[in-house]
Design brief:
With about 900 residues, the chain is an alpha+beta fold. It is built from 30 helices and 43 strands. InterPro entries: ATP-grasp, ATP-grasp_RimK-type, Cya_phycin_syn, Cyanophycin_syn_N, Folylpolyglutamate_synth_CS, Mur-like_cat_sf, Mur_ligase_C, Mur_ligase_C_dom_sf.
Amino acid sequence: MRLDHVRRLSGPNVYLARPVAIARLDLQGLTGHETTDHPGFAERLVDALPGLRTHHCSAGRPGGLLAAMARGTYFGHVTEHVTLELSGLIGREVFFGRTVRAGGPSEYDVILECPRDEPSGSAVVEMLIALALRTVTGALAGPAPDVSADLARIRAAHEGERLGVSTAALARAARRRDVPVRRVGALNLLRLGYGRHRRTVWAAMTDGTSAIGMEVAGDKRLAHRVLADAGVPVPEGRVAASPAEALAVLRDIGGPVVVKPLSGHQGEGVHIELTEPAEVVAAFASAAGDEGEVLVESYIPGRDYRVLVVGGRVVAAAELTAACVTGDGSSTVAALVARVNADPARGTGHDRPLTRLALGPTELGLLARQGHGPASVPADGERVWLRRNANLSTGGTSRDVTDETHPEVAELCVRAAATVGMDVCGIDLRLPDIASPPPADRGAAGILEVNAAPGLRMHLAPHEGVGRDVAGDIIDLMYPAGTPSRVPIVSVTGTNGKTTTVRMIAHMLELDGRRTGMTSTEGVYVGGRLVHLSDASGPRSAEMVLGDRSVDAAVLETARGGIVRRGLGYDRADVAVVTNVTRDHLGMDDTETVDDLAEIKALVAEEVRPGGHLVLNAADPATARLAERPVVRERAPELRYFAPSADAPVLAGHLRDGGVGYYAEHGWLTEAHGDRRTRVLPVEDIAGSFGGHAAHVVADALAAVAAVRALDVPVDVVARALRTFDPHTRNPGRGCVYQVGENPVLVDYAHNPAAVAAVGALVARRWRGGGVAAVTLPGDRSDELVGETARALAATFGRVVVYEDEDLRGRRSGEMTRLIVQGLREARPDVRAHPAGDLKGAVASALDIAAPGEPVLLLYEKLQPVLELLETLGAEPVVPESPAPSDAVPSEAVPSEAGGRSSSTVTDSSASTTIPSSQ
């Protein structure tokens, strides 16, 4: 078997609402082989990986995989399960897997769940799959190979890139509160929320944390001064810039003292309870570092505590115990350390609730002062200290004492946090007992440090006592109860009309006063301005908009390619729109039928928030059927259907049941809710609809109206937006007419059978006949689809100039021209097909062929070269003539008459007279 490639879908996808990786396997010589064709294979594999015995597989119970291998199953499926088992062995707990046939007869896709916050560039899943392949092929030949060394290497890679304990807890707490979470790269930096409600948090430091407070907390000398000036008790001490100065402080304040770096963290370089000059000199050398200075302060006896203050209140407190072991009378210190480190809760760094004990120079020195070494055997019950500073990062443990904390201690800690200016901080203090008021005697209690970005693990999972949801407290500080974390999201998918529909929706929302972020095939727009030029209909562009803190609403064109290759760029939409599902992109990404396309686009319908809104084309059976999908039904969205007329059976039935729908009736765009009707705008007033001749533009308008009405955009704003939706400025490249000499040139992006037929119908209605077409089609479509599109073109155009785009998309030069001409002639033997070398030659030929005043249809792949060419030809944009805007706007909706004919009334806005809708 061979691993061809791995791709990752980071957002909700057609397989799972969580991230997955898709590995393309070539079974090569194992193609068609089943496990039963290789006696002893299953037994050897399970001997190497006993955990496979518990795998459920499709049986839904432990032992399902064993039963499948006994019956006979393919090796792609076996590789899937081995990869999941190996993933669990390194602590990477994922459970979903699926194997599907893909590409050629020997190719399979293995779909594997990935941890939600695993970096998108992680190589861990590929390493696991490669190891699974080696394990499976090894078990075919004999005993499966020992994977322990490989697993250790992969485990290290996984541990090194996953979120730290504190950040992971914050991510979980945010998701429990329905706050969107996105990890930034491989950092412990989280982006929370969407749009104007977006916040960021880095470990326990929020984007509201004071920069000045951080600076003060990070400088121990300054922090002590600020606290002392506020009357907060702190140890007596001062800065020493040399060993001699450190000894002078020892003489002045008396021992014992503490020596620590000015800006240290996690207990590094801290030396406690020093009384001898030699100890102070040695501590200075250890703690001074590059700064050349240390803080020497009096040692406060008592217990070590960490109190966490969030938003001006104490949310947790822990008593800390320094790293130590307890003798049993027979084990050496080294053996006792090894026994403690066997606890799975201990790890290296900050990836586990506790840190492994060490026997380094600092620990060995302290052991020697106690009369011990690694080989000595402490007495039964004897506590042997490995560290004096009670930091978790050096192996210490914590005991929750939140409920024991005396109110006066809590008040002291809150005062300290406020004095330094921190929204979230950890207060380190020593005092006899946290359950009692702080003693007033000088040196009997004091705050040792104010920690910015404090670690949370001692409170989340204390060694003793109950864990506290301190991550939730931080999220609640950032998003108090009732504070939104999201902006409205409208996601639009379909085969045709996506770009026009999202542009209409964005224009409507902007006129409603909402600063809107929009993604489309032409780029990312914020507030109506282009901010990123690209084909921006995928998840990265969606993330760009949702990460913009100026955005009040997001309108996302969600194309097939982005869904298939990376998943969605959001977790769920408030409004999902599916314009239609027709033949396009067939032959790409293993998509062979319209049903395959519908399965992909259904994801947008399924990933709508519970109780949200789903806008579907009632006139398109494949689209209308999406409402019947089980996942859609689980979300229970409000269905909003649209159709050219109320006669569409699905729409008519929906309205009879009291639903909401949109259609054209008596020349008006109409909103219906059960038996009530509200007129929105005369169809002929829709800008870019050519007075209503462009039926596909009217359909796009209906979809857009349905979407924004779900977001409570007023009808008069909707009408004004549609009247002012000038195609040249708001919908470039879609239905735009330019005058070139005596000929109108219609520029459009139609590139599949349905779209070409719609544009052809527009030309026939608007110009009362055909014209000349200059066309190119995308080369990554199947031969069959190219031919079908060409045949649709021939239904309107008898004269066609064919050219090829600069990007052949894998085709040979001249191949697309041959296919298009062949399709044209199959449908219309008398067609006059004229090959042209490029865009410029095609336009020149089409204009030469066209009679004066005759329209020329120009289909393109890239808009910018078209615009540049038209400019050189002196083309002038033509605004399609429309009737004068009607003054009539709806004032109220009333029940319709029997038979479905509207009897709603509209009111003249200037005279307030009622006009019967039947006129």
